Amino acid sequence: EHDVSDASTTQSRMFLGRAAHSSSPQSGESAILKMIDYLTKLPDGLLLMEMEGGVNYNTVPSNAVLEIDTVANVRETIGSKIARIMKAISAVEQDFLNYSDDGFDPAVPTLNIGQVRTYEDIVKFKGCCRLPPSVSNEIYERWMETLRHACAEAGGVFRITEYKQPFRTPEDSPLVEVCQEVLRSEGLPADCGAQSVANEANVFSRFGIPCVVVGPGRGVGNSHAPNEHVRIDQLHQAVRFYRGVLERVSL
Question: Among residues 5, 132, 156, 250, which one has the fewest Cβ atoms lying within 10 Å of its Cβ?
């Protein structure tokens, strides 16, 4: 009802960032983190009416909106609960620095809060972690338990909907050598590197299947950005590459 009342005492704030894929957060700027930082610095007792931001869990959000009631006096606000959860997130991110992997950029694990929505009885956050192979399952589970405990203490629920284990394929793998041979025959770079984006290869590798991530287009600075695109000639190159690999490994 506050949206249609002439006597509304609410105030709104808009926060702007820069979109990027969550695998390369250094290329973006999170509007949701700006909003949360602003929210946690407000005086106690303010009523949170609405929080909205982002488009999906794995994109650095470029926009966010916060609406608060400055007259209400609430004993335990949503803002104070979010602040407690953010404290736990900050502690986990600090521990990220202990698990660097120089083959990846950034070299340490990262966490992205990509979306927030307000419903009738809850505020829901969605996000994702990007984990290099330096992070074991035991370490991952410890971090997730820290976040789960923080949410439970604030009266919330923490849920993991998907987990793709990080992996590394040796450069002397026969599959890697075949891919490099085909790339060179097409006049394309054949150097090995680390891919920060999770995909089906993370699933296949858990079953001992050798995997190589190759595809057309540019990832960093392009994926999940307003100018995201793949050139047609790059698609044709990809078709020739896939055909060349299949001819060498299946015939």
Answer: 250
Residue 56 has pLDDT above 90, yes or no: yes
Residue 207 and residue 152: Cα distance in Å, rounded?
Answer: 34
Q: What is the CA radius of gyration of the chain?
A: 22
In order of 56, 68, 155, 187, 209, the CA distances from 112 in angstroms are 10, 24, 22, 37, 29
DSSP-assigned states of every residue in 165-184: ------TT-HHHHHHHHHHH
* Contact present, 183 and 189 (Cβ < 8 Å): yes
Farthest-apart Cα atoms in the chain, separation: 76
**Interacting residues of 179 by C-beta distance below 8 A, sequence separation 6+:** 190, 212, 214, 241, 245
- In whole angstroms, give the CA distance from residue 27 to residue 11: 31
Sheet holding 47-53, edge to edge: 10-16, 63-69, 47-53, 110-118, 123-130
Look at the block and give the residue holding tokens 């250094």: 26
Identify whether the C-beta of residue 10 lies closer than 8 Å to the C-beta of residue 67: yes
Quote the CA–CA distance of 163 and 175 in Å, as a whole number. Answer: 25
Give residue 59's pLDDT. Answer: 92
- Under the banding of pLDDT at 50, 70 and 90, the label for residue 138 is very high
Task: Specify the residue for token string 């994926």.
Answer: 223
Residue 231 is encoded by which pair of tokens? 């050139």
Helix (H, G, I), strand (E, B), or coil: what is residue 64? strand
